[in-house]
Write a structure and sequence with these properties.
The chain is α/β, with parallel strands linked by helices and 328 residues long. The chain has twelve helices and 14 strands. It is globular.
Amino acid sequence: MALKTIVETVRDTLAAEMGRDERVLVMGEDVGVKGGVFKATEGLLERFGDGRVIDTPLAEDGIVGVAIGAALNGMRPVAEIQFADFIYPAMDQIISEAARMRYRSNGAFGCPLVIRAPYGGGVHGALYHSQSLEAFFFHVPGLKICAPATPRDAKGLLAAAIRDDDPVLFFEHKRLYRSIKAEVADDDFVLPIGRAEVKRDGKDLSVITYGAMLHLALEAAERMAVEDGTSVEVLDLRSLLPLDREAIAATVHKTSRALILHEDTRTGGVGAEVAAFLAEELFDDLDAPVVRLAAPDVPAMPYNHRLEQAFLPRIDGLLAAVRRLADY
């Protein structure tokens, strides 16, 4: 076991997978000589050479398009989008090509491609370096989406994504890269994509979340236990596609109350799908309306510190929402 940050875990997992399988290659803007803007690929060029760690032009459609071609020719590319905000030029390649490859070939071809994308706010990245884009791809059958919030989950899910025979979007929250550390096993392990995990047991209500908001939920749950005597269960989705409906159903069946928390804007987000599932399938288990807490529906996250904090879900707002739900 070793104490690691998420960015260290990503780097070590990439190195381990490249050492395990010579078909794995890394490509993207500044991933080689610079080692990535967040240093997530630092040292890989020296270890594996420029045939497997490829600095690309600033052209996201080209990065993903070339990665798809490599995947179809027996490689297992890991393409980095330097910031998730820059992924828009590659959306046609991701949605029209990668996501549909198995369907359009009647199962004859997979597309073993991982697209890593640092996302999220709280780092003063302003309009073009703070976006949460998971909901755009959450709507697309044929994709898998991971959004780990701990070093251990980052290791297990990234290894699983690289070994998967279909395309995986791997969102890494920038604010978590170095803000948390945890023990990570040195041995080889994978976590199944599509499995949520209860990060804190509870009996009075459930907070369903993912990404950086997991840590906000855990803080709120601890404070609710101490200040109110309320037992809050925290379910970390970890993977968004496929969505672990069994785990969502299990926690709500247990507590009868659900609050869905995410950093992305509220309308049409992942929380809306979770809420719809609960309304359709678990209505008889619910003792209160399903609550969503998310960012406001404004065009972008501001740069100004106070405005950025106003955009993001905060502990005071979460505690107030949890208390209202508990008292309903």
